[in-house]
Amino acid sequence: MTYKPRPHDLTDRAYLGKRTDRDLYNVISRGGGAVERSLTMPGWGGVLSPQEIWDLVAYVRQFSKQP
Q1: Structural domain tally of the chain?
Q2: Buried b or exposed e, range 16-45, using 16+ CB within 10 angstroms
Q3: CA contacts within 13 A on the Cβ side of 33
Q4: For residues 26 and 48, what is the distance between their CA atoms, to the nearest angstrom?
Q5: In this structure, is residue 28 part of a structural domain?
Q6: pTM
Q7: Which residues contact 41 (CB under 8 A, 6 or more apart)?
Q8: Which of 44, 49, 53, 64 could tie 16 with a disulfide, CB 3.0–4.6 Å?
């Protein structure tokens, strides 16, 4: 499947470094369209608890750390 726009590379430290944890929380919780990003990204706030979303933010942050 091809996504348009193409999702960002979450291992890219420069890109992820420009995003706050709150930015990541909002896009996961509310979806891309709610934060002026891709409409392809659904919101997960109705499925995941706030703590699960914060845990996911921490997990995503791990992708961009140096080995």
Answers
A1: 1
A2: beebeeeebbbbbbbbbeeeebbeebebeb
A3: 5
A4: 12
A5: yes
A6: 0.82
A7: 7, 27, 31, 32, 33
A8: 64
From residue 9, alpha-carbon distances to 16, 42, 51, 61 in Å are 9, 18, 24, 12
Which residues constitute the domain of residue 17? 13-63
Amino acid of residue 66: Q
pLDDT tens, position by position, for the chain (67 residues)? 677 777 788 888 888 889 999 999 999 999 988 888 888 889 999 999 999 999 999 999 998 876 6
Question: How open is the CA angle 34-47-2, to the nearest 5 degrees?
Answer: 60
